[in-house]
Each structure stands twice: as structure tokens, then as C-alpha cells.
Design goal:
Layout lengths: L1 H49 L8 H6 L17 E10 L6 E2 L3 H15 L4 E10 L7 E3 L2 E5 L3 H9 L11 E7 L7 E4 L10 E4 L3 E5 L4 H6 L1 E2 L3 H15 L7 H32 L7 H23 L2 H19 L12 H40 L1
Parallel strand pairs: 1-3, 1-6, 2-10, 5-7, 6-9
Antiparallel strand pairs: 4-5, 8-9
Helix pairs in contact: 1-10, 3-6, 7-8, 7-9, 8-9
């Protein structure tokens, strides 16, 4: 009887031990499965799904594109591949005098000169009439009124508020033709109080103003027909000064192309270098494939432009310089670069760590049970052997 009881107890204990071992195995497997799902799978998936997509960029080449060329800010217009030329005809006394001239006629006569400049930029010519608009800061001097050279910058500011130059995304070159009152002829005087022969002045990066006084006969007949050739000649001279041209010969046009190409290349190099620094310092900026392609095209073409210019091929150098400038500006101003600018890495951790940490702590603490379980299994095998 005792032997039977002892044998039964041993079987019962053996069964219980086997059940305990199976249950322990299930627990360990459960811990390992949680660890595998959360750590081996979960963290990489979280990292991949929350990462910022960044296309491959030629960063090293972009860093090398450091421009050593200084920008001449003293005189000149804004760098662009397109410009608006706004012809403004300002008539303060439309009731007292009729003006027989059209902005379209000035446009037609400007086209031959603008065609010479077409390799460096595209031009859109617009015209407008401004009535009952005066030029301020006039002082009477005997039989006429005077604008002194030091007052000229103050004339532009009130006039510019009535121009349409701010309605275009392109830089605007203003060409203003002002017709004074018949009773108030207006002349520009220099620092020596002498009349300026051209009666016109130029403002760098803005444009020019030409003051054209009606003659006595026109005032008596109340009809003034300006000399179109003289008006166009004055505006052409002002545009030449804005583009830093000495003339319109082939040598002058070639010199303009070289200067423009070098300026474009220098600007492109600065833009790409700044973009490389920006994208390297802020890792949360998205770099789409489209932006990456634009940058690659810009880098490739700016290098080609420099090679062509060094070899003396000005036309191809200018062509590739314009392409590189266009794509570099497009990449730099692409809206997608701001997609995750305000969601940096530290904020990403601050959002997700409170979610992962309560789940991960029990899992990591349970790894001690795995270690004990592995040690006991190893010891059991040694005993059985």
C-alpha cells in the first residue's frame, strides 16, 4: 500500500513538475515574443515610419561651391532672369494740356535694344498713365522750378506708391516720363546750381525719371507731341547705365554676357552652399525627390557653366548659368522644405517615449526571468546527462 502511494505521489509530482515547466516555458516564450515584437520589430518600424525622408544630395559638392566673388551693391539692378519694364507717363495737368504719345509706341521703339539684352534676361514691357500726380520738393527759381540733386531720392518714394511695380513677382525697372505744368517748367540742377542738360536722373536698382517740359507753342495750342526718338534714346541710355553697359557694340554685348554669367554663377554657388548648410544643420527638413533633382541639376549646370566660361564659350556658359540659377532658386524656395521644420527630433522623442516606456519597462524586467529559465534548463540537461 505504501509502495503504491509512493509511486502515485511520484507520478503526481512528476506530472505537476512537467506542467510547471510547460507553464514556465509559455511565460518565457510570451516574454520573448513581446520583446521581439516591441524591440526587434516595433522600434525599427517606429523609427522608419517617423523618420524624415531625405533624398540623396551631392552635399560635398555643394559645400565646395563657396563663392569668393564680392557683390557690387553700389550700382546695379537685382539679379533675375526676368524683368518688368514699367513705362509710367505722369501728367499732373490733363485739363490744361493734351499729350500726344502712347506707351505702346515707346515699347515698340525699345524692342530693338531689348532684343540685344534677350540672352541675359526676358523683358515684359508695361505702360501706365498717372494723372494729377506731382513731383514734390520743387522750388521756384526765377522763371522755372528746380529739383536739386540731393532732393531726387525723396521724389521717388511718394511716386512709387502710385506705380504698379509691386503687382508683379518679377523685379521692375521703372521708366518715368514726367510732363510739368506749362506754367511751371521744371529743371534739375546739380550741386553747382547748374541745369542738368539731360533733365533726367537715374536711381540704382529702381530706374530713371525723365522730365520733359512742353514748349510754348504746345502750351498755347494745348497739345504737346513729344519727340519719341528723344524719349526712347533717354530711356535706352538709362537702361544701359542700369545694366552697366558702355555701349551696344558686339564687344559691349559680349562683356555684358560675361559679367552676367559670372554674377549668376556666383549667386548660384552662394545659394547651393547656403542650402547645403541649412539641410545639414536641420535634420527635420524634408528633402523630396523633386527638390533633390533640382539641386543635382543646379550643381551639374553650374560646374558646366564655369567650364564653358573658362574655355571662352560665353554663350553656352551663360546658358548653363541661367539653368543652374533657375533650379537653385526653385530648390531653395520649395515649400516642401518647411514640411517638418517645426517637428524636430527632441519633440518626436517627447511624444513617443511616454507611450513606449510603460510598455517596455515590464518587458525588460522580465528578461531576468528568461535568464533564470535558461540557467535552469541548462542545469537540468547537465543532471540528465
Amino acid at each position: 500500500m505504501c509502495a503504491t502511494d509512493q509511486s502515485g505521489n511520484r507520478k503526481s509530482e512528476s506530472y505537476i513538475n512537467n506542467e510547471d515547466e510547460k507553464e514556465a516555458d509559455y511565460r518565457i516564450y510570451s516574454v520573448l515574443s513581446y520583446f521581439f515584437v516591441l524591440v526587434i520589430i516595433g522600434i525599427p518600424v517606429w523609427w522608419y515610419t517617423t523618420r524624415v525622408y531625405r533624398a540623396d544630395l551631392p552635399i560635398e559638392e555643394m559645400y565646395k561651391l563657396q563663392s569668393n566673388r564680392r557683390i557690387n551693391k553700389d550700382f546695379g539692378i537685382l539679379l533675375s532672369l526676368e524683368y518688368d519694364i514699367l513705362i509710367s507717363l505722369v501728367h499732373p495737368d490733363p485739363a490744361g494740356l493734351d499729350i500726344d504719345i502712347k506707351g505702346e509706341d515707346i515699347d515698340v521703339n525699345l524692342q530693338p535694344f531689348l532684343k540685344l539684352l534677350s540672352p541675359i534676361a526676358n523683358f515684359v514691357v508695361k505702360s501706365q498713365w498717372l494723372y494729377l500726380t506731382e513731383l514734390g520738393y520743387q522750388r521756384k527759381n526765377d522763371d522755372h522750378y528746380v529739383l536739386r540733386e540731393r532732393q531726387l531720392p525723396h521724389v521717388i518714394s511718394p511716386l512709387e506708391t502710385k506705380l504698379w511695380s509691386h503687382l508683379s513677382p518679377r523685379p521692375t525697372l521703372n521708366l518715368v516720363l514726367y510732363f510739368p505744368h506749362c506754367s511751371k517748367p521744371l529743371y534739375i540742377h546739380n550741386s553747382k546750381n547748374e541745369r542738368v542738360e539731360s533733365n533726367a536722373f537715374l536711381s540704382p536698382r529702381w530706374g530713371g525719371i525723365y522730365i520733359l517740359n512742353p514748349d510754348k507753342n504746345s502750351c498755347e495750342n494745348k497739345l504737346f507731341q513729344p519727340d519719341l526718338e528723344r524719349v526712347v534714346s533717354t530711356f535706352v541710355t538709362q537702361l544701359q547705365s542700369l545694366f552697366k553697359m558702355n555701349g551696344i557694340s558686339k564687344e559691349d554685348i559680349r562683356a555684358l554676357k560675361i559679367s552676367k554669367a559670372e554674377e549668376i554663377v556666383a549667386s548660384t554657388r552662394r545659394t547651393l552652399n547656403s542650402l547645403a548648410r541649412l539641410l545639414s544643420e536641420i535634420n527635420s527638413i524634408v528633402i523630396s525627390d523633386e527638390v533633390g533633382e533640382k539641386i543635382s541639376i543646379a550643381v551639374e549646370n553650374v560646374n558646366q557653366a564655369e567650364n564653358f566660361l573658362k574655355s571662352g564659350d560665353v554663350d553656352n556658359g551663360l546658358k548653363h548659368a541661367k539653368i543652374s540659377y533657375y533650379y537653385s532658386e526653385e530648390a531653395f524656395s520649395d515649400p516642401s522644405l518647411l514640411a517638418l521644420l517645426y517637428f524636430p527630433q527632441d519633440q518626436k522623442y517627447a511624444v513617443y517615449i511616454p507611450l513606449f516606456l510603460p510598455i517596455m519597462l515590464p518587458v525588460f524586467m522580465s528578461l531576468k526571468l528568461v535568464k533564470r529559465w535558461y540557467a535552469s534548463r541548462k542545469l537540468k540537461k547537465q543532471k540528465e546527462e
